[in-house]
Amino acid sequence: MSDHPEAPVAPVPAFEPPYYLAVFTSVKTQDLSGYRETNARMEELVQKIPGYLGMDHAQTPGGLSVTVGYFRDADALAEWRTDAEHRAAQRRGRAEWYESYTLHVAKVERSYAFSRTESAETA
Amino acid sequence: MSDHPEAPVAPVPAFEPPYYLAVFTSVKTQDLSGYRETNARMEELVQKIPGYLGMDHAQTPGGLSVTVGYFRDADALAEWRTDAEHRAAQRRGRAEWYESYTLHVAKVERSYAFSRTESAETA
């Protein structure tokens, strides 16, 4: 997504359950040196994980940031979780960039997508 | 949260799994008349659902909006899903406010919270 800033914004679609998602909610510190570069690198890396399905991100200016990553199964998510470069970025995040964060890892049981031109219920 | 706009922003904490979450990602239309009032009413209503745990929200200006609602169990979420006033708001949302949206309902298996002053792994 960072590679295509000109693309129209759209939510990640609904997939056929079951699949996994990781909700990462955070409030950042004032010291964001290196953050943008690391974040771009993480977006690049995660796309190489087999079973990675996509990511939604929103940030209220000066407020909460919410990122949701979608994965085909628990193995795909575990591979991302244990990636060495990702773990190093997490350590730096705790040391420098995040005032606080919460991670929720969950198995999707039901999903639904709507758009003005089409809609699809998957379960 | 809309009742306390002056409160410091913080992510909803990690709860003891299992619990449920609903990720709602959306892109809005240009016609948002009535949206703010309805949204405030929904925030008021959802807090009355037994088993409602909290909500995270972020919106990138002009871009994606991500809302994550947390519930103690599937029954609590079902009660919210079938609430008559909520369903009416959903219908109006599809007719007027949303260009597109996706809903993912998932059962949380693992969660973790970090803050500068404390951190806690719940599973």
Automatic annotation (TrEMBL), chains A, B:
Gene Ontology MF term list: monooxygenase activity
Listed InterPro entries: ABM_dom (IPR007138), Dimeric_a/b-barrel (IPR011008), Jasmonate_Hydroxylase-like (IPR052936)
Superkingdom in the source lineage: Bacteria
Keywords carried by this UniProt record: Monooxygenase, Oxidoreductase
Annotated ranges, domain ABM: 23-92
Coiled-coil positions: none
Name of protein: Antibiotic biosynthesis monooxygenase
Keyword Oxidoreductase tagged: yes
Short name of any one Pfam family annotated for the protein: ABM
